[in-house]
Amino acid sequence: MGRLIRLSPLALLAFSASAAPLRGKSSEFIWASTKALIAFGDSYTYVQGTRGYVNSTFIGSQLDISYTPQELLTDLIVQNQTGTAEGGPNWIEYLTRCGLKPGYTSPLTCEPQLWDFAFGGADISVDFTPLHHNWTVSLENQVKQFISYGNPVLENFLDKKKTLIAIWIGINDIGDSAKYAVNFPTFYNTLQNHLFSLVSSLYSLGYPNFLFFNLPPLNRRPGLIDSANPLPNATMIDYGILDEPAKYGFVNTTNYCAAYNQPDILTDPEEYGCLPQDEYFWFNSGHMTSHVHKILAGALEEFLEKNSRR
Ligand SMILES: *[C@@H]1O[C@H](CO)[C@@H](O)[C@H](O)[C@H]1NC(C)=O
Ligand SMILES: *[C@@H]1O[C@H](CO)[C@@H](O)[C@H](O)[C@H]1NC(C)=O
Ligand SMILES: *[C@@H]1O[C@H](CO)[C@@H](O)[C@H](O)[C@H]1NC(C)=O
Ligand SMILES: *[C@@H]1O[C@H](CO)[C@@H](O)[C@H](O)[C@H]1NC(C)=O
Ligand SMILES: *[C@@H]1O[C@H](CO)[C@@H](O)[C@H](O)[C@H]1NC(C)=O
């Protein structure tokens, strides 16, 4: 399977990452000449689109899964307080610099372009965990939706070899299955196998470059794909941003501002007894702040440059 790049967000917090081809021969990957990112996942990655379901996605929903080429190509990324789940730009917007400015951005005007099909609240598949809402598009359905409606449009003008597919999924699966009475290593293995069958169907469309974020600490993750190189290990995970917050400008890493969703929270945090949002690590109970996403994106960009190869 071509060249696969994968890394853990925890590894990024430690400013280190691992990359390895999964199997077979490597193909070229050059970050500097990457023309587009196509993303799948959950609220960590979704961006609001003018044709998206509110607080959930760039385009469509499970209640309205299809879209026309015209609808896709005229959809705009929204940047405002509710445009992401972070109260500001998220990692993929920082990485692509697409949709960073307040207001509306057409992905077509960006380089690299950002085509983001992640859906807030998504799990991998209803085979394992129920949908959060009847409008939620699971990762499985994001991929099916892309195969039916997205790819036939985008492949007309995107160079697949210069496109990176990014997948960050799993936080909802972990949370939603926490109370299950199952053998977790076996259960997570099943989930990962399912995930990789979805990746295979994207790969067979002709996209050779993939970026994966892994959720749990890689060293403790069951069913390591690359057990010969289980990085980051426990030591590396231990020295992240959370241990050196001041270095990155974070003042409060233990809690979040309860008024995070107030319309004037960015301009008047004192009114709510809060620090400026950028000084918090956590945006709310499940999400990191936009500032953390900015740091992640910076580290990720370095990683992608270092791992560029002909
Ligand atoms: C979207 O999110 C904002 C901020 O959390 C919330 O105030 C609003 O009610 C949400 N809208 C819908 C339709 O869920
Ligand atoms: C952000 O923009 C979207 C789309 O224009 C709009 O529906 C939403 O209410 C806006 N949110 C805020 C906080 O202004
Ligand atoms: C989806 O769920 C909402 C709220 O739970 C409900 O009001 C609506 O009727 C449902 N729609 C469909 C098509 O099932
Ligand atoms: C993890 O890797 C680092 C860097 O190679 C090494 O210094 C450290 O001893 C390792 N820790 C464990 C627990 O293997
Ligand atoms: C962190 O922020 C929360 C919410 O603003 C506050 O309640 C808490 O006291 C702060 N913790 C520290 C250690 O400053």
From TrEMBL:
Gene3D superfamilies: SGNH hydrolase
UniProt signal peptide: 1-19
Alphabetical UniProt keywords: Hydrolase, Signal
Pfam families according to UniProt: Lipase_GDSL
Molecular function terms from GO: hydrolase activity, acting on ester bonds
Transmembrane segments: none
Record-given protein name: Carbohydrate esterase family 16 protein
